[in-house]
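Sample intake sheet
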Amino acid sequence: MNLTKFKKDYLRNWQLYLLLIIPIAFCIIFSYIPMLGIQIAFKKFDIVEGIWGSPWVGMANFQRFFSAPNFWQLIRNTILIALYGLIAGFPVPILLALVLNSFPKERYKKVVQTVSYMPHFISTVVIVGILMQMFNPRTGALGNLYNLITGTYMQDLFAKPNAFPHLYVWSGIWQSMGWNSIIYLAALSGVDPELHEAAEVDGASRVQRVWHIDLPTILPTATILLIMSAGSIMSIGFEKVYLMQNSLNISRSEVISTYVYKVGLTIGSGDFSFATAIGLFNSIINLIILVIVNQTTKKLSETSLF
C-alpha cells in the first residue's frame, strides 16, 4: 500500500485506526518496554544501583545455570511433562469436536458442550483442591472406593513422583478439552452440507465422511494450534505445578518455571539476575522449537504461522 492510498484509507476509516491505539499502547507498555529488563540476565543485579547501574558479568549467570546439579533434571522434567501433555492432550479436543459435530440431536449436543466447557472456568487452585480431595487415601472419593473394594488404603498419589505427570496432564486435559474444542467446532461449521449429502448418496458411512470431509477441514486449524503449542513446550504452567508440588514428588515436579520462582522471588534467594537468565534461556529454546516446527509443517502441509 503506497502513501496516497494509505491516506485515503485513513481518512475514510479513521475511527477504526483510532481504536488501534489502545492495543498498540498495551503491547508497547507491557510487552516491549519490559524487554529492557532482560539485560539483568547479563549483570549482577544490585537493587541499590538499579538495572542500569549494576555491573556486567557477561554469560556468568548462564554458565551457573548450565553447571547447576539439577540442570538436566529441570530440562528433563519440563520437556517430558510438556511432550506428554501435547501428545496426550492435543488430539482430545479434535475428537470431541468431531463427535459433537456428528451428534444427531441438538439438545444432547448442547448438554455435552456445556458440561465439557464448565471445567475451564474453575480456577487452578480449586482444580488442585479437587484433585487432592479425590485422591486422598483416607477421605477421598477414590480412596474410599479403593478401600471398599480391596479392604486396604491406596497409596497417596501426590507422594509418588512417577504419578505426578499423569495427575498434572490428565487433569489439564479434562479441564481444557471442552474449551479447546470450540475453535474446531467453529471450523466444522463452515463445512458445506452438500458435501455430506453427496458423500451419503455415494454410500459413504459416517466415519468415512468424518475422515474425508470433516478432518481435512479442520486440519489447517489444527496445524496452526500445534505450532503454537510447540512454541510454548518449555513453558509449563507455574501455578498448577507449584500447588501440586511437595517434598516427596519434587524429583519429577520441579520444572523451570517453579525453579525460576524459587531462585528469584522466594525469601532468602532473590537472585533476580540468575532467574532472568534462566527465563531468557527458556524463551530462546521455545523460539527455536517454534521456528523448527513452523518450517517443518510449512514443508509438509504448506500451512504455517509465517
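Comment: The chain has a mean pLDDT of 87. The two ends are 20 Å apart (CA to CA).
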